Amino acid sequence: MHKSAMLAAILIFLPLAAQSATTVTGAYGDLKIHTSGCAITASTRALICNKSDFTSADVGKTIYISGAGASGATLATTISAYTSPSGTALYIPSGSYLHHGLNWTNNNLKIDGDSFGGTSLWAFDVTNPGKTTSNAQSTGVDLSGAGYNEVDHLTFIGGWTGFADMAPVVNVLGARVGSSGTALAIAHIFDNDFFLTQGQYDVLLYGYEQTDFKDCHFEATGPSNSGVLYLSAANTPSIKSPYATVAAPINSMTKVSVNGARTAFGGAGKLVVLDQGSSESDYSIAIRDAYANLNRGAVFLSDTGSGALRHISLDAINIETNACTDCRAVNVKGPAWNWKLENIQFYTAGSGLSVPPYNFAAGFLDSVALIDSTGQGSANGNSQLMAPSCAGSVLHLGQQQPTTNCSDYAYASGIRGVLPQVTIGQDQGAGTSTSWRKLGTFVAAKLGPGPTLIFSEGVGSNSNANQQATSILTLRTGNDTAAPNLSGLSVVTLQGTSGIFALKAVATAGSTAATNRSWDIYLQQAAYSLSSYSVDLPQGSKWIPFNVTAGDPGPASSTVVLGSVSSIAKAAQPAFSATSAEIGGSPLTAGSCASATVPVSGATTGMAVDASPVTYPGNQFFWKAYVSANGKVTVNVCTTLAAGGTPTASVYNIRVIQ
């Protein structure tokens, strides 16, 4: 077993060939004794001292370390490398090392392993020996400090499959330390490192800025993962360093770069987490050239709070989810400003997703998206990218599901061409009975006209033009004198048979204020109703679509308004038809007619009649037809010429128009 130890080590530097600094010819008088305390990993050449007067000239000299040899004897070895006045390079040879918590809290460290996966540090049953913060959570490796550290070619393992209870809460911690939030922790490098945990957090950085991860692997296989890369400004989980005093929040968490074609993320739960809290201090984060494998409801990137997230870049990321139905690429609560999502592919199999792969609950603003998703479920009401607003954003939504529910973007396109800026989405009845649906929420910018929703709708899709209808929904605010502050709400069908049975508006959140400006709109629809709609909004107003099944909002009250439902449409009806007996063949005098009466079922007086001969009677003759009695049509063939004549005998085709 290899353990970290804190040593009050005496370090003696002599020339390699010297036996005595005072008696051997050619020896140098540069003996140094260091007693401020050092940490060493047993059976390796890894050594770090809190303070030292090392210089680059000490490389190659002999070093004696008290208590670090076998059975507590003095270890004699050679200084192999030098990093800075406050840190010496640590090299850990290839192998698997079991430890109970490593204290690497220092500055200017250069810690190097043998290779990617070659040097493995296993944190089991972590007690953090020598810790100075008694109530700190268990931490596998603590790298908290001010900065300029580099950690390369190491594997950090917290627990193991089947031993989740032995894993530390945090596998690798990098936190800003100091008496105030003005302390800095900057300029760190992780190169070709592998992080794997069964615990709650894999890699947690708190105010550990200007950090570069190159070709690193982040993975969690435990039952309760809260982040394989947790980037914190707010320290929401109240993380403590076992060996140093962590600066109080809020800190900034900026300039983190994760890149390299070997970069990979995997696991369930949350992978990359931005812990901004209510601040706007998580920003300038970039992840590029990465592969991610998600399962069991995993989210590639999420956040913890309500603060704005600015300048986040995800580029050339391939996300696979197997047959996960509730996995997401992005799910954030805070407003997303100036994001750049480029060349992201999100794949799933099986029945498709039950959630939107990209969800921005507070808006996707002044941003750019170049994304594509497969496996998006078609009957769940979700678009590929969902946000209440995409103001100022450019959306390229790809080939598979080029859909969004926001309507205020600057530009949007997909494989099917430019998406209309007012397109909101689809509303669909369910089952074999009528149902209520919450269509969306209208937020007024000022009094007066509300939104105009134009529906292309109908009931079913298995017949003819009788199932097509066009309806218009309009709303008008009140004048701030009485709740719920609506003066009108109606839907009118212009043509066809509508599937909209009833309409109601409810003051959002049950507001009873006379100056209420927000209403939830509900429709009662026929079974198998299918509709799409567009929204025309007054300037500054907002429409937030929901399109979900809901209950009846209830009777009219101080919070509920009943809308009117009417129709000015008259559906086209088939004409009644018949054929007469032959008319003509006998001479007519001026002003006389030949006639025939034909039974036509359904014809009523007042209906229009059209008749036409099979054989033309002649230029001096004309014909007319009318409903002479219910169920009967009379056709007359006449002449007004003084000479009269004989019309050619012909049957007449009759159409009675309803």
Task: Show the helix and strand layout.
Layout: E1 4-7, E2 38-41, E3 47-49, E4 62-65, E5 75-78, E6 90-91, E7 95-99, E8 102-103, E9 110-112, E10 119-123, E11 139-142, E12 150-152, E13 155-158, E14 170-175, E15 188-191, E16 194-197, E17 201-206, E18 211-214, E19 217-220, E20 227-232, E21 253-259, E22 263-267, E23 270-275, E24 282-294, E25 299-303, E26 309-320, E27 328-332, E28 336-337, E29 340-347, E30 358-360, E31 364-365, E32 368-373, E33 385-386, E34 394-396, E35 411-414, E36 417-418, E37 423-428, E38 435-443, E39 449-459, E40 469-477, E41 486-495, E42 500-507, E43 518-525, E44 529-536, E45 542-550, E46 560-562, E47 564-567, E48 576-579, E49 593-599, E50 608-613, E51 622-629, E52 632-638, E53 652-657
Parallel strand pairs: 6-9, 7-10, 8-11, 9-12, 10-13, 11-14, 12-15, 13-16, 14-17, 15-18, 16-19, 17-20, 18-21, 19-22, 20-23, 21-24, 22-24, 23-25, 24-26, 25-27, 26-28, 26-29, 27-30, 28-31, 29-32, 30-33, 32-34, 34-35, 41-47
Antiparallel strand pairs: 1-2, 2-3, 4-5, 35-36, 37-44, 38-43, 38-45, 39-40, 39-44, 40-41, 42-43, 42-46, 48-53, 49-52, 50-53, 51-52
List keywords for this structure.
658 residues; mainly beta; 21-stranded mixed sheet; 10-stranded parallel sheet; disordered N terminus
